Amino acid sequence: MSAFVIVHSIIRDPEKFKVYGQSARGIVAAHGGEFYLRGKVAGVLTGEHHHQNALVIKFPDQDAIQKWYNSPEYQALIPNRDEAADMIFISCDEPPA
Length: 97
Known about the structure:
By secondary structure, the chain is an alpha+beta fold. It has one domain (3-42, 50-93): Alpha-Beta Plaits, CATH 3.30.70.100. Helices cover 38% and strands 33% of the residues. It contains 4 helices and 4 strands. The chain has a 4-stranded antiparallel β-sheet. The longest helix has 17 residues, at 14-30. The chain is flat, with a radius of gyration of 14 Å. The model has no long low-confidence stretch (mean pLDDT 96).
């Protein structure tokens, strides 16, 4: 069953974020991930949400997500990511058919 990572972000340093994004794309792909949706948050229908961007990455399963996120290659990017942006990562399973 597919699994997804949903990311909400506020970019603080566009140049550092660009470097992070370029590196992260290859690591995501190496773990079977594909970018499913990427864009600016158009509006908030209820509640409070202060992040400006949303991203959805599709992976084969939760195991692939854990291997990607915990890989030494991705972990090495986290200090740069944290300097570049405020990000929230959420994983969820694809609902059964």
